[in-house]
Amino acid sequence: MPLTTVADAPLTGRTTRWDYASLDPAAHRLYLAHLGDSVVTVFDTQTRKVVADVSDVSHVHGVLFVPELGRVYASATGTDEVVAIDPATLKITARVPAGDYPDGMAYAPEVHKLYVSDEHGGTDTVIDVRTNTRVATIPLGGEVGNTQYDPVSKHIFANVQTRKQLVEIDPATDKVIGHIDLPGAEGNHGLYIDPATHLAFIACEDNDKLIVVDLSNKRVLSTFDVAKDPDVLAFDRSLGWLYVAGESGEVSLFHLQGQVLTPVATAVLGPNAHVVAVDETTHRAYFPLKSLAGKPQLRITEPQR
């Protein structure tokens, strides 16, 4: 793996599970879902220290900083709701009912709506961020993996794991307008969309595959073997590096040039390194680790020079 560990920074709390991460590079803040402790941990990437823990976010899974709103959203799976957090005060400002087991989130700016994967409920919950109220529930017909916004089509895409499909939603109507079959997918959960190439990258957690989909032509381009139990994906656009982080502690790295994706390496990065966030300015990648030398720590890497 062509990465150097810059630091292992201490994190707060117990040696319990971490989940999604979301970066605010302008403010040098990384928001981390500490699922096992039911808090959103706020980490300063300049000082490499924890700023605060926002508590009372029960079994927090998803976390998303929305720069257009200057707001953070987190999915509280324990209470089946989404909470809004003010980054200035680091206080919860709203609680919105979601569906069964809310997980990943995506924001569609044109319609001011947040889309939330209700993994067990088989739906996407739609929240109007202007009022922080639920305005729609979209049935997707199966267990829902991650949900992402596509800036090219201005549509929402969601993994439907039990149907081996990527589903397309029109935010103007909150209706499903298309399905893309994913042959060979088992547990298609992780999702990242690159607007420059209009490709979707899908991590299949049950058979350790990465599926590449051309969203313009609605077809699968390629399939790759990846780190065992892949979960979260992150992309450094200026380098063309795609990270696929696995529950096994392995991470797979790919290089994207045009629409051609090439494997670089797969290697063990750290215990339970299934979450990754990347700062495209510094090229540093952040991996929260449940237990490193008996303590929760944030492994910070950068490309080898």
Describe this structure in words.
The protein is mainly β and 305 residues long. The protein has a single domain, classed as Methylamine Dehydrogenase, Chain H (7 Propeller). It has no helices and 28 strands. It has strands at 3-10, 21-24, 29-34, 39-44, 49-54, 60-66, 71-76, 81-86, 91-97, 102-108, 113-118, 123-128, 133-139, 144-150, 155-160, 165-170, 175-181, 188-194, 199-204, 209-214, 219-225, 230-236, 241-246, 250-257, 260-268, 277-278, 285-292, 295-303. A four-stranded antiparallel sheet has the order 1-28-27-26, with no helix packed on it. It is globular, with a radius of gyration of 18 Å. The mean pLDDT is 97.
Layout of strands and helices, then pairs:
Layout: E1 3-10, E2 21-24, E3 29-34, E4 39-44, E5 49-54, E6 60-66, E7 71-76, E8 81-86, E9 91-97, E10 102-108, E11 113-118, E12 123-128, E13 133-139, E14 144-150, E15 155-160, E16 165-170, E17 175-181, E18 188-194, E19 199-204, E20 209-214, E21 219-225, E22 230-236, E23 241-246, E24 250-257, E25 260-268, E26 277-278, E27 285-292, E28 295-303
Antiparallel strand pairs: 1-28, 2-3, 3-4, 4-5, 6-7, 7-8, 8-9, 10-11, 11-12, 12-13, 14-15, 15-16, 16-17, 18-19, 19-20, 20-21, 22-23, 23-24, 24-25, 26-27, 27-28
